[in-house]
Design brief:
mainly alpha; single chain
């Protein structure tokens, strides 16, 4: 089997990097959901931070950036909807 040329290798690695970014984003959303569940269970972000041994600022940032309030609905689009 011939070795792929450099263009093919660049394309393959570009695809792989895109997949990895998508996986990291999905993991961040799942982590935020877990933090949110912890907040519901323990009553505060500070309690979650204390329980997990991380700084409360990290818990706040993760929830703000990736939490359910900021998540894109699964069937939404970025296109404008036509007026009815």
């Amino acid at each position: 089997m011939p070795t792929p040329n450099w263009r093919e290798r660049v394309e393959a690695e570009t695809r792989r990097q895109r997949q990895l970014r998508e996986e990291v984003a999905a993991s961040a959303r799942r982590r935020a959901e877990a933090f949110e569940e912890g907040v519901r269970e323990l009553g505060s972000k500070k309690a979650v931070a204390r329980e997990t041994g991380i700084d409360v600022r990290i818990v706040r940032r993760v929830i703000n950036e990736y939490g359910s309030a900021t998540a894109t609905p699964p069937d939404s689009t970025t296109e404008d909807q036509p007026n009815k």
